[in-house]
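[job 4471] stage=fold_predict status=RUNNING
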Amino acid sequence: MGSLSGARAELAHLQRRELQLLQELSDVRKALAAQRVVLDELVKASAVPYIDRVPNELLAEIFLLLRDERKSLVSVSRRWRTVVFDTGRMWSDIDLLRDSPTMQKLYLERSRQAPLTLTIDYVEPDLDAFLPHANRWHTLHVLGSTGMTLDIISEIILPSLRHLVIHGDGFSLDEMLTMRSWAPALKHLELIQWEPPSPRWPLCQIIPAESLEELSITSYDDWKLEKDSVHLPSLRRLALNLRDPIPFLEAIVAPKLASFCFTPDNHEGPISETFAGTRMKFNNVSHLTLSPGHGVDKQTLGLFELLCQVFCGIRHANIYVDYVRTLFPYYGQGAIDHWTCLESLDIQNIILGSSQPFRDLICWFEKRMRFGQRKLHLKLTRKPVVDKLVMLNTSDTLFQRLQECCASVVLDSIPVSPQLFLPTSAGSLLPSSPTYTALNV
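[job 4471] inference complete, writing structure tokens
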């Protein structure tokens, strides 16, 4: 056994060693923390931003949604600039009135082989630079100078033209007798303010009827053609903005027609009260939109009731709120009750300050339930220009009754009171964090 002094010396040595080790541990921990900071900074400096991880192809598709912001996009980075200039479709939309001749030629060069969209307004069209690219014309809007434009394009062939919007300035469609030759593969045609063709020129001999998939006609004139004289074998969507659409519907044969949109033109004059075709003529039409014109009068509502009978196989309907009271009767059979296959309704232009449309819909839905009919999917879309402070109180009894009558209720652009949160299983789409005063409907 050692001496007392030796033991004390060994203890002092171990204590000094302990202090040294603690100091070393403290230094290591400080160095470790400092190294972590350095490493984090290096990781942050070398990390690739999320937007830079997006492939160029996907980035180009995003930029196409922002093509009007090209000047801003090219100034962000060298990569973005390269993507913008390498994407031909960023430069393929050319307006002959807005863009100077110099810019038109520049856009043509930068668009490479991308399909072209050309807009011709009230300006003398100089198409010399575009004629060598006739095979790239995909979309053409002729909103003015129609006669001069037709004189030019009627001498060429536009094999890739798919969309044509053309304003007639009140001229007869006889002026476009050669359309079938210069637009042989047209799929979407919008005729604005054209008179119908003369009897000696059937419509299906003027327009490329075989390839046409969408047709839209806006006119102050009556389009009265011979019954079943217009054969449109590929037509899937028809939009009419006419005073009386019935004569045109009687004239067409469109076995693939699936969607019909009608906007009334409120020029005075008699309109049809009956439909000469059979109830099965448009049996394949499943989507119908009744859009508002300049007003809702008794004649227009009567026409809508007739259209509900003509298109009796509707499954999905878009109807403006102004027509709810007439088309959705509380008692008896109304026009919309002809739609025995109906699955969903989209009621447009809802105004939260008025509870009457909600009451009308509830009464109609409850009538359907009494007769054992299926519940429908309902979408309510708010009128664009309304007081944003007005909100829907979803805890209101009236709204809850509406939900009970429907398979689902979707609210589009309708602000909702925060008083009650409805889970998604309830079938409602609620905006987040509304902050204004609620309104009981």
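[job 4471] summary: The chain is about 30% helix and 15% strand.
[job 4471] exit 0
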